[in-house]
Amino acid sequence: MAVWEFNRGEWTEAYVFIKLLAEGRIYGADSNSNKNENLFLDIIRILRYESEGILEFNRQISTDTPQISASCNSTIFKVITAPELSQKASVLYSTIKKITDKRRKFSVEEVEIFLKSLKFSSPKAPIMPKEWQEKYGIKTDIILTTLSSIDRAEATEGFSIKSHLGSSPTLFNSAESSRFIYKVVGCTNEDMHRINALDSAKQMAQEIRDNERLKLEFVRTYGDICDCNFSLIDSQMTNIMQVALLLQIGYIGDCEKNDVPSIATALADINPLNVKHPEFFYPTKMKDFLFASFAGMTSSKRWDGRKRLTGGYIDVSPNGEILYYRAMSDDVFSSYLYKNTFFDRPDRGYLKDLACLKGRASLEGRTPTQEEIHNVEYKNGKKQPKKGNWGYVYENDGEYFFDLNFQIRFK
After folding, report:
1. 185, 308 in Cβ contact below 8 A?
2. What confidence score (pLDDT) does residue 30 get?
3. For residue 167, what are the CA distances in angstroms to 28, 42, 321?
4. pLDDT on residue 230
5. pLDDT score recorded for residue 307
6. Within a 10 A sphere around the Cβ of 290, how many other Cβ atoms?
7. How far apart are CA 275 and CA 106, in angstroms?
8. pLDDT along the chain (411 residues), means of 10
9. How many alpha carbons lie under 13 Å from residue 247 in its C-beta half-sphere?
10. Contact 354, 299 (CB under 8 A)
11. What gap in Å lies between CA 53 and CA 72, rounded to an integer?
12. Under a CB-based contact definition with an 8 Å cutoff, are residues 97 and 165 in contact?
């Protein structure tokens, strides 16, 4: 049987499951990520959808040592104690913290054996059926039945897990459909090679900016779905975002930071839509975009504007503490997203590397060798995926273009 190998973020989902069952309580946080001792949820059970059936893990506190009964399709198959779970959570956390390569996949044999005894197919939650996504939220990672400290009301809700134990978690994922296409007005073949030889996307954009013959003009997003989804947030959302990307890469303005508040402030200073009270308008639109992204909006799947979410968001801090945020369309949660996210430039792919190779070779008055091209296109004997495919100048029917892409990550 194959050994489980997953990255830190994927193992962290299992850590949250084990730790919540062990401790039986999760505390709330304010918009500044501070723990609120007076706001908490007591865990009654955790639900999980697996191919074998619906798993339920019920906490029972009839003795000094809480017990958890595990059932599949309502039939109990195992009983474990809170101390057992605490020990597994400690082992898993210690292992995750030792891994320095954020993308590296690794195994945790002791925890794997334990989770398999609970009928887990992986530490990461499987894709839920559509009816569960409709009920608990499309971005749900864990389903909790809890009692609220506010009114002791019982509720079963889905929560998304974001971990700071691995790579910065994403709120809005990049895709080919989230590419923004800009025309490089005035560009020649020689310009293209000179710009691409710089390698850095930011340097390329600034080279275009500093050349009085050249100018970037926004054309469209790569996919109609992206534009349609953005328009459900605001009819001008695509235009707002295309200017935000130009700010983020240094083509316009002097915004030195990539965090969302800094980009929103720079947008307000430029005021590309010429709106009244830009100091309120652009931060509000960014909050709307972030909330829609959390609630299920992506760039590659048709969105109907519905915000499919129930419970909220669980944050795992670097020290292993777990806090939650309610996913209500109020200022606390929206402000949290706004204050704690940033624009990130994703991987640009091997086609960018190929363009850079051709650019450098052109400046040297030659063409790339077949060996050089092969070394770019292949890695460990395998053809590289296109992945990303943005951030370089390319020619199409005699015109030149420069695509930008982005993702939104939590700090």
Report:
1. no
2. 75
3. 23, 29, 17
4. 96
5. 72
6. 23
7. 51
8. 86 96 92 85 96 93 86 95 96 91 86 96 91 85 93 90 81 92 97 95 95 97 92 96 96 90 96 97 96 88 79 88 78 85 92 94 94 89 82 96 96 85
9. 28
10. no
11. 6
12. yes
Contact 39, 27 (CB under 8 A): yes
User: Which of these, 331, 292, 314, lies nearest to 41 by C-alpha position?
Assistant: 314
CA distance 81 to 57: 11
Q: Which pLDDT score is estimated for 328?
A: 62
9 is written with which tokens? 């973020």
φ and ψ at residue 339, rounded to 5 degrees: -75, -20
Read off φ and ψ for residue 105, nearest 5 degrees.
-95, 140
Distance CA 324, CA 120 (A): 24
Sheet strands (E) in 18-141: 25-29, 35-50, 53-60, 67-72, 75-81
Tokens at 4, concatenated: 């489980």
What are the E-state strand segments in 265-372? 312-316, 322-326, 341-344
- Please give the angle made by the CA atoms of 78, 82 and 87, to the nearest 5 degrees: 100
Task: State CA 51 to chain mean position distance.
Answer: 26
As given in the structure block, the two tokens for residue 394 are 């390319």
106 closest CA partner among 90, 120, 95, 117: 95
Check the CA dihedral 90-91-93-98 and report its sign.
positive
- Cβ partners under 8 Å of residue 401, min gap 6: 181, 182, 183, 184, 219, 393, 394, 395
Encoding tokens for residue 210? 């500093």
In angstroms, the CA 142 to CA 132 distance is: 11
- pTM of the full structure: 0.84
Are 138 and 307 spatial neighbours (Cβ–Cβ below 8 Å)? no
Contact 297, 303 (CB under 8 A): yes
CA distances from 270 to 231, 234, 282 (A): 21, 19, 11
Return all residues near 36 (Cβ < 8 A) that are at least 6 apart. Answer: 27, 28, 29, 30
- What residue type is 345 in one-letter code? R
Cβ burial, residue 62 (10 Å; 0-12/13-18/19+): exposed
Whats the size of the chain, residue-wise? 411
